[in-house]
Amino acid sequence: SDRYGLAANLAEIEALFERKIESTRLRGEQVYNRITFFDLQGKVLVSSGDRRIAFFVPSQKDRQVTIDFENRQIVSSAPVTHKGAFFGWIQVTTDLSHLSRLLLSTAEGGRHLYREMLLSPLGKILSEADLDGLSVDELGLELLKIPMGVVAPGAAWGGVAQIYPDSVQLRTRIPSTDLSMVTVLDEHTAYGHMASDLFIAAMGSVP
User: Fold this and answer.
1) Is the distance from CB of 105 to CB of 115 less than 8 angstroms?
2) pLDDT digits (tens, 9 = 90+) for 114-134
3) Considering Cα of 115, then 119, then 123, then 125, what sign does the dihedral take?
4) Three-state SS for 47?
5) Nearest to 118 by CA among 187, 64, 190, 174
6) Could you report the per-residue pLDDT of 62-120, keeping only the tens digit for each?
7) β-pair partners for 29
8) Best CA proximity match to 33, nearest among 78, 80, 81, 72
9) Band of the pLDDT at 163, cuts 50, 70, 90?
């Protein structure tokens, strides 16, 4: 019957989702927490993975990425089409920490030469940060003040200068999300010999 055929197809889809969850890994760790198939009305037809992970019913037919900051999940949805007809959505959830692990950080002699941090639209730092005398919340709000796409001196933001002295920062938006990435770079690394007092003094002596 049609009902039996649909059930059989859904069982195959569920098995496919389970294999995908098991086989997709990043640096040895499972990437997808949950994969869900919604029909046209937003009803769950198939869902595989950790059922404790909350999901959002897609609200549009386009691809969309939502960040669940409370549960630290990235929720990605894509439409399911066949021969031009729309049938529903596939949605995957993955832990935000996977994105954080791809961020770079370089230090030397206890000094940060280069660091990348994820920032929520409310100024919450979503990646690990080594702090000294300033809370994560305070630093996040300081970083949020940095204009988007502008290289800014750390001295302009008191809290940033306290943790990352003699540095410059750049905040850029991550496409398709509400997140931004803050890059902190040591001034001497950024400008090389041009940042030294000796170079500046020498340039000042040139008529």
Assistant:
1) yes
2) 888 888 888 888 776 555 545
3) negative
4) strand
5) 174
6) 888 888 877 888 888 988 888 888 888 899 999 888 877 777 777 666 666 788 888 88
7) 26
8) 72
9) low
Residues 27, 1: Cα–Cα separation, whole Å: 44
Q: What are phi and psi of 120, to 5 degrees?
A: -80, 165
Apex CA 45: angle with CA 39 and CA 46, to 5°? Answer: 130
Instruction: Name the residue with tokens 């750049």.
Output: 170
Nearest to 120 by CA among 180, 71, 73: 180
Determine how many CB atoms are found less than 10 A away from the CB of residue 58.
22
Edge-first strand listing for the sheet containing 73-82: 44-49, 32-38, 85-95, 73-82, 64-68
Mean pLDDT (the chain) is 77
Question: In this structure, what token pair is assigned to residue 13?
Answer: 């889809």
CA 19/CA 129 separation, integer angstroms: 35
Distance CA 93, CA 7 (A): 24
Cα–Cα distance between 31 and 101 in angstroms, integer? Answer: 12
Q: What percentage of the chain reaches a pLDDT higher than 70?
A: 73
